[in-house]
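Problem: given the chain below (59 residues), write out its structure.
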Amino acid sequence: MAQQDGPTSPGKPGDPSNHRTTMVEKGPFCAAHCSCGWRGPARRARSLARDDAAGHVAG
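Solution.
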């Protein structure tokens, strides 16, 4: 099941608020996906996938 983290309304281009991240679970793995098309690596720990998403949004 996907869990949405972050803002629901898009902002200006280049603004971190444009990025809506979700956590996607597949079997024992969890990966961060972003509305911009970015996808993080599969992780066994949800906390690491959330950290990947936070790093993507921040920079």
